[in-house]
Amino acid sequence: MPDGVLLGVEDLRVAYGGVQAVHGISLEVRAGEIAALLGANGAGKSSTLLAIVGAVKPRAGRVMFDGHDVTGLAPDVLVRRGIALIPEGGRVFARQAVERNLLLGAYTVGEQSVVRERLDEVYGLFPRLAERRTQIAGTLSGGERQMLAIGRALMSGPRLLLVDEPSLGLSPLLVDVVFDALTSLNRRGTSILLVEQNMAQALEIAARAYVMQTGAVALRGSAGEIRSSDHVRQAYLGL
To answer: Residue 237: which pLDDT band, with cuts at 50, 70 and 90?
Structure first.
């Protein structure tokens, strides 16, 4: 892989039975950047993420992380290597308290001092979670559950975050809170692959972007190039 590339996806193909969901997608995320994977619902974005983290076995292709082939490795192995997925919809352990959810995210961490330090960092990033640390997660608002899902992923100390549709179902105000948090994490050195239908918002924080259509990459380039593309503006941004 080229120097500086943390994640490299090469000709990845994903199928469910006889239905091809991802048709030979290639993309990369450089160390320290936010890359956006954009497209309408059903374009194959989530299937791409699931294949990267080993939750779905790819039909073909290769996933490289930090110079190593990690194609098809189990999700828990990839967590230990530094990749964390924040799934769509802010999924949490609904019957567990907020802090218990966060601690479950640190199952790969052996040192309690590190766990406590990361817990403090999450509460610093999301003060609302600190206020609700004893509250049952299933009673949180949608925005709070999204914060908790992000916080739980951060407890493993990832170098790369895969974030699936973080704005889904949130009010504009909470979307801003979540995107500000992702920007803050990136400034601290965490690389991010962001899957979003809200293209305008994603392109505000991403360095590069890939636009998927029916399982393949239709456009790629810097966020500025994608944002200024007449095709993207008309077909996806409604401008």
So the answer is: low
Number of domains making up the chain: 1
Range of the domain at 15: 5-235
How far apart, in Å, are the Cα atoms of 40 and each of 18, 178, 212, 213, 235? 22, 21, 8, 7, 10
Helices (H), the chain: 45-52, 75-81, 98-104, 112-125, 127-131, 142-154, 172-187, 199-205, 223-228, 230-235
- The two most distant CA atoms of the chain are separated, in Å, by 52
Residue 3 predicted with pLDDT over 70: no
Going by C-alpha positions, the residue among 167, 195, 196, 169 that lies closest to residue 181 is 167
Q: What is the pTM of this model?
A: 0.91
Q: List pLDDT tens digits, range 139-193.
A: 998 889 999 999 999 999 999 999 999 988 888 888 899 999 999 999 999 999 9
Residues in a beta bridge with 15: 20
Asked if residues 187 and 177 have their Cβ atoms less than 8 Å apart, the reply is no
Say if CB 39 and CB 20 are below 8 A apart. no
Question: Can you give the CATH number for the domain in which 75 is found?
Answer: 3.40.50.300
Angle between helices 112-125 and 172-187 (to 10 degrees): 140
Averaged pLDDT for residues 109-126? 92
Helix, strand or coil, per DSSP, at residue 15: strand
Q: Kindly tell me if the per-residue pLDDT of 10 is higher than 90.
A: yes
Query: d(Cα 150, Cα 178) in Å, to the nearest integer?
Result: 9
